[in-house]
Every structure is written in structure tokens, then in C-alpha cells.
Write a structure and sequence with these properties.
The structure holds two protein chains of two kinds. In chain A, the strands form five sheets. In chain A, strands 7, 8, 9, 10, 11 and 12 form a six-stranded antiparallel β-sheet that branches. In chain A, strands 1-6-2-3 form a four-stranded antiparallel β-sheet, covered by helices on one side. In chain A, helix 11 links the parallel strand 16 and strand 17. Chain A contains 13 helices and 18 strands. Chain A folds into three domains: about 70 residues, Dna Ligase, domain 1 (2-Layer Sandwich); about 130 residues, D-amino Acid Aminotransferase, Chain A, domain 1 (2-Layer Sandwich); about 150 residues, Rossmann fold (3-Layer(aba) Sandwich), CATH 3.40.50. In chain B, the strands form two sheets. A seven-stranded mixed β-sheet of chain B has the order 3-4-2-1-5-6-7, sandwiched between helices. A six-stranded mixed β-sheet of chain B has the order 9-8-11-10-12-13, sandwiched between helices. At the A-B interface, helix 4 and helix 9 of A face helix 4 and helix 5 of B.
């Protein structure tokens, strides 16, 4: 789960990290009123969960009320990387001398947390990370002890942070690690942490992603998720049904069980010259209700011209899966789009025999099912 | 021969009184697995599928000489259950549970480093030595005894590829589902090392997927330390960056690491043929044997 900037800043400020004064606004009037209260100059920042907002025109620095109104008017309602902007954060602009990067994340390779500092903060940190990894000082953290003070200092000094602020930067890094740890975050970042002319530190941006699997022990953060839930309607429908779903831009709908097998099915669609419309993992078994819900999600995507339904039964018997599928499609007088089914695993043959072939096309192998679905999608779209 | 489990393995099931634990204990027993105990706090003295239940894993290990644990405990309590297994101790822990918080697993992994125990999973289908024992939820009847070692990050994809192998008469020594989470115990390199040391394993299939760099590390290990030939499959060639494809670990990062292309290139450079389709993987295995 990704927090909005304003949500993450709230969490950071509560933990004692200095942030600029700011207010949330959803109209140009509210934005101007907020800017008047804060005092100019202010930054008007789109609240959407994408990186590179500044480069994409989602952040403007303004010097007076008129400019604030213009900026809010242009940013509110804009589309940033496919996401609609319906709120801006109006924030006191910081006069800075340096921009630092501070981050805490899980290092998958090492299977332990890592805290990072760089003096190359700002919009290009991802390029810096890719091209000059040595420009980022890293300290791995033993989760039993947390980030030791000496490690935080060492990261700041190794990164080349000015000596007069290095101890303060180390303090912010320790706070960042603590809130990463306390909130079950997967990532927590400040980019940039600004060093002002008065040699004060201010977090001008805040990023925090929280582990979905740990939300059960953070009811406060789970509430924020409800607030920030939005986006693609089909994706929210799928989420409501409890499916793992990712929408893509092709025309072959894909339903399957198990993440790896569904990914492999997507790849096969591509391999046979088709284009996958989605990833949908229906999960264990295939009870009628779940099958019906999965078909509902995929049929509701106007880009889908044909569907491939691939279930490897495993412990769940193929004849039970087939009954579930038949029951689900009995609700349709006619399926709106061709559906190719393939069952495998225990009792798969018995299952395929009882599938309703008036409505469904059945293939015995994964390869044949995918080929058929790609062909059918091509016919429908032609 | 086999790796990790055989018909001498003595299994304790943690979470045996829950729905999943109860059902799969029955399946494991039917397969011939030597399930000697269950462990559920407060349920000591009961029996499930004829298997005696203890309050603690240590009690089960002591009284029934259990040397392997299978964990079906719900995610909120699974981290603690894994610590209990590691502290009992047993030689092998297989964690089936999906959705364990990442930081709980980081703590478990930290403990694991101090032990000699093998942890398989979490979020995995388990381990099976066909004809001898299965620890987990794998459907036993698609496997058959043979000389191919199998290691995979995914459950149903394992079944798909194994089914192809079995139908062609390519049986397996052992199949290890290592799991789809970002932090897992046994990784590809660990599993490959076990198969390399196993006399009966004459070829190995590894099924990887997008996310992380474990497949790249496996490629380095294969090139520098292995004689047993390996064939591979990588799922997620068409996955867009930044989107989690079901598994918590299956994500191409924004900066472009973890792509299928990088993994396939690394494996090819290590002399490992990578099938474009699951059927092609079986073709490659036939060529390697």
C-alpha cells in the first residue's frame, strides 16, 4: 500500500521529522486560501501516487495568490501517468542549499533492511542509484538491534554530508528507520531532505509504502488506504472480489490459478502472437461464485475479445472445478465473449467431459488453449 | 536418494487442528508420509487423523522424535511458529503459510542464519520425494520417482511443468517449492547445491519468475560450481514494471531490476537452456539426460 505524500508527511512529522507547513486542497479557492495562510512562496503539489511528479508538471512553485490559483487550476483535474489529480498539497517552499536523499528499504538479496544516505538527492536519484551506486552510502541493519547510532553517523559521513549537519542527518535517518520498522513499511524515503541556508533540515517530500500483509496490525494505516483507494474501476472491482489482478493493454483476457502459472499463461499468449489484457489469479479451488466473479471482472473490460481460463486443479479435483465453472456460466444466456477452458491435474479428464461445451471451448493442453484464445480474439477484433 | 525428505523423515504439523492443517495432514498421511505429531498450543492430548497433538513443537520433537515441521499456522502467528520450530529444534521446516509480514520474515531469517536448519518457504507448496514422502500441499499423483531434481518459486506452475515431465516418463528425485515471497529460507542456490550433491539427480529443472536476483545468483553458481545439467523456465516476460504479479516477490522494480530478460540472459550465459514454453522445458530435459 502506497501512502499519499500528505499522509506520509503526517506520519513523518508525528515521529519528529521536520516538514514544511502544508495544507490539503481540492479546489483552487481552497488552495489560494491555504497559500495565504502559509505565506508565499509556496509549492502546489499534485497528490497522486506516481514518481516523477515534478518532471511531469505536477508540482509548481508560486509567488503570489494569482499564480497559486493558476497553478491549482492547471494541476487539479490533470492526468499524471494515467492517474486523475483531485487534490493538491499546498506547502511552504523551502529555500535550500543542499538536497539529500535518505531511504530505508528491504534488501532482498541480503534478506535484511538497509538504510541509505546520498548527497545527490532530488529528481534524479534513481539514475544515480543505477549509474553511480557508490554515490549512495548503505548500512545493513540487524533487525534484532535496529539501526545503531554509529551506523547512521557512518552513513552520513560516508555519503559526504557536510560535517556541521551530519549528526542531525544521522538523527533523521534513525527516526526514519524507526518509523519504517514501527509501521511495517517496505520503503520509507525522504527525497529531498533539504539543508536550508540556516543549516536546518526539512523533509520536502515523503514516501512510505506499507506491507499489505501487515496492515492487520495497523488499523490507522488501513484507514488511510480506504481514503486513498481509487483508480481503475475494473481493478477496484477485482480487488473487492479478493483477486490478484493487473490490467494490461491487450485483448486476450486471462484467468488462472496461482501467480506463476498465470504469468506463464500471459507469456504464452504473447509467445503465440496475442496480447494479454490482464493478469487474474483466481486463487485456490474454483467455486462457482469465484468463477462467476472472475468472469464478471474480465468481461467488464471492453478491450477483452476472448478469454482463456486455465486451472491446474492440484488437490482440488477437476470434476469439482468443472461443476463450478458450469454453475457460474449457467447464469449467462450467452457468454458475451468466447471462453476457452483448459483443466489439468487430478480428475482433469472427467472434468473436461462434463464442461458445458455449448458455451465453452475446451482444449486439453495449455499451449492449445492459449493458441485457440489468441485465434478467437483475432477473429473477434477483425 | 533424494534431498531434504525421504521415508525416514518424521513430521510434526504446526497448525494441525485448523482446516488446512487437518485436510493436508490427511493427504500427507495417505501419500505415505511419516506424520508423527501435530503441535497446537492448548490442543495437546487431542488427535487428528490418528496423529497425536502436542502443545509445543519441542514436546512433539521430544516424544515422537520429529525431525521436520510443516507450518500451516495463519500469517499473523506464523512468524512466531517459525521461531518455535527453529528453537525446538528440527532439521527441516516447511512453511506453507501465505501472507507473512515481510519484517517478521526478516527476523526469522536472522535467526535462521544461526542454525543448521533448512527452511523451505514461506508461501510455498512444499517438498516431495515421489513415492516416499510429501511435506506440504503438492498433489502427489502428478509426481513420479525418477532422476530429475526440481526447484520452483511457484506452486501451480510447478504442477504444470512436473505434469509435462511425468507424462513423458521423466520422474523426479525430489521437488522443492521454495516460495514466491521476497524473503524465503532455501533459495535456488541452496536447492541446487543439495541436488548437485545427490547421486541420483542427473538433471535439474529450475522454474523462476520475475523479481529479485536469485535466478542470476543461481546462474553464477551453476557456471562456477555445478556438473549436473540444469534446464530452466522463467515466468513473467510480459509483466510490466512496478506491478506486483500476485506473489509479493514477483515484481520488476521501477529501476528495471528483476526482469525476465536479465534472468534468461544470465542463465543462457551459464549454459542453461531456458524453455519458451513449459513443454519446451521438458524437451530440454530430454536432451540433457
Amino acid at each position: 500500500m502506497k501512502l499519499h505524500e500528505y499522509q506520509a508527511k503526517g506520519v513523518f512529522a508525528d515521529a519528529g521529522i521536520p516538514t514544511p507547513p502544508s495544507e490539503l486542497a481540492s479546489t483552487a479557492e481552497e488552495a489560494v486560501a491555504a497559500a495565504d495562510r502559509i505565506g508565499y512562496p509556496v509549492a502546489v503539489k499534485a497528490q497522486v501516487q506516481v514518481g516523477g511528479r515534478g518532471k511531469a508538471g505536477g508540482i509548481e512553485i508560486v509567488a503570489d495568490a494569482e499564480q497559486a490559483r493558476e497553478a491549482a487550476d492547471s494541476i487539479l483535474g490533470m492526468e499524471l501517468k494515467g492517474l486523475h489529480v483531485d487534490r493538491v498539497l499546498v506547502e511552504g517552499a523551502v529555500d535550500f542549499e543542499d538536497e539529500l536523499y535518505l531511504g530505508v528499504t528491504m534488501d532482498r538479496g541480503e534478506r535484511q533492511p538497509v538504510a541509505m544516505v546520498s548527497t545527490r538527492g532530488g529528481v534524479n536519484i534513481e539514475e544515480v542509484a543505477a549509474e553511480e551506486p557508490e554515490a549512495i552510502a548503505r548500512e545493513h541493519v540487524d533487525p534484532a538491534f535496529g539501526l545503531h547510532p554509529y551506523q547512521a553517523r557512518r552513513a552520513a559521513f560516508d555519503a559526504g554530508v557536510d560535517r556541521d549537519v551530519a549528526t542531525d542527518v544521522a538523527g533523521v535517518l534513525r527516526t526514519l528507520y524507526s518509523l519504517w520498522d514501527d509501521n511495517d513499511a517496505t520503503d520509507a524515503e525522504i527525497n529531498p531532505l533539504m539543508v536550508t541556508a540556516d543549516r536546518e533540515l526539512v523533509a520536502a517530500d515523503a514516501v512510505m509504502n506499507v506491507d499489505d500483509d501487515a496492515l492487520f496490525r495497523h488499523p490507522d494505516l488501513a484507514e488511510m488506504e480506504e481514503e486513498s483507494a481509487a483508480g481503475d474501476d475494473i481493478e477496484s472491482t477485482a480487488e473487492g472480489y479478493g483477486f490478484d489482478y493487473v490490467r494490461l493493454d491487450g485483448n486476450v483476457g486471462i484467468i488462472g490459478n496461482g501467480a506463476g502459472l498465470v504469468m506463464a499463461t500471459l507469456d504464452l499468449v504473447d509467445h503465440y502472437g496475442g496480447a494479454p489484457a490482464n493478469f487474474l489469479d483466481i486463487g485456490g479451488g474454483a467455486k462457482a461464485e469465484r468463477v462467476a466473479n472472475a468472469l464478471d471482472v474480465v468481461f467488464s473490460d471492453p478491450n477483452v475479445d476472448a478469454v482463456v481460463f486455465n486451472i491446474f486443479g492440484g488437490i482440488t479435483r477437476g470434476d469439482e472445478v468443472a461443476k463450478g465453472i458450469n454453475e457460474a456460466i449457467a447464469a449467462f444466456e450467452e457468454l458475451p465473449k468466447p471462453v476457452v477452458v483448459r483443466l489439468a491435474g487430478t480428475n482433469a479428464e472427467e472434468g473436461m467431459e462434463i464442461l458445458d461445451t455449448d458455451q465453452l471451448e475446451v482444449e486439453a493442453t495449455l499451449e492449445d488453449a492459449v493458441k485457440r484464445a489468441v485465434e478467437r480474439a483475432a477473429e473477434v477484433s477483425a | 536418494m533424494s534431498v531434504l525428505v525421504d521415508d525416514d523423515t518424521r513430521v510434526v504439523v504446526q497448525g494441525i487442528t485448523g482446516g488446512e492443517g487437518r485436510f493436508h495432514t490427511g493427504q500427507m498421511v495417505d501419500y505415505g508420509t511419516n506424520v508423527v505429531a501435530g503441535a497446537v498450543p492448548g490442543k495437546g492430548g487431542q488427535a487428528v487423523e490418528g496423529v497425536p497433538v502436542y502443545d509445543t513443537v519441542r514436546g512433539a520433537a521430544r516424544e515422537e522424535n520429529a525431525d521436520a515441521a510443516v507450518v500451516f499456522v495463519p500469517p499473523a502467528f506464523a512468524g512466531d511458529a517459525l521461531f518455535e520450530a527453529l528453537d525446538s529444534p528440527v532439521d527441516l521446516v516447511v512453511a506453507i503459510t501465505e501472507g507473512i509480514p515481510q519484517q517478521d520474515m526478516a527476523a526469522v531469517y536472522r535467526k535462521l542464519r544461526e542454525t543448521d536448519t533448512h527452511l523451505v518457504g514461506p508461501n510455498c507448496p512444499g517438498v516431495i520425494t515421489p513415492g516416499e514422502a510429501k511435506l506440504g500441499i503438492l498433489p502427489g499423483d502428478i509426481f513420479s520417482p525418477g532422476n530429475v531434481g526440481f526447484v520452483s518459486r511457484s506452486g501451480t506452475l510447478t504442477y504444470q511443468v512436473v505434469d509435462n515431465l511425468t507424462k513423458r516418463g521423466l520422474g523426479q528425485t525430489t521437488a522443492v517449492g521454495i516460495g514466491g515471497d521476497p524473503i524465503i529460507g532455501t533459495d535456488f542456490v541452496d536447492a541446487l547445491r543439495l541436488f548437485e550433491a545427490d547421486e541420483d539427480t542427473e538433471a535439474i529443472v529450475m522454474c523462476g519468475e520475475i523479481g529479485g536476483e536469485d535466478e542470476e545468483e543461481a546462474a553464477n553458481f551453476i557456471a562456477s560450481e555445478m556438473d549436473t545439467p540444469v534446464a530452466a523456465f522463467i515466468a513473467g516476460r510480459t509483466a510490466p514494471p512496478g506491478k506486483r504479479m500476485g506473489h509479493a516477490g514477483a515484481i520488476v522494480s521501477g529501476s528495471g531490476t528483476g526482469t525476465a530478460e536479465s534472468k534468461i540472459t544470465a542463465l543462457n550465459n551459464a549454459g542453461v537452456p531456458v524453455g519458451d514454453t513449459p513443454e519446451e522445458v521438458a524437451d530440454h530435459v530430454e536432451e540433457l539426460l
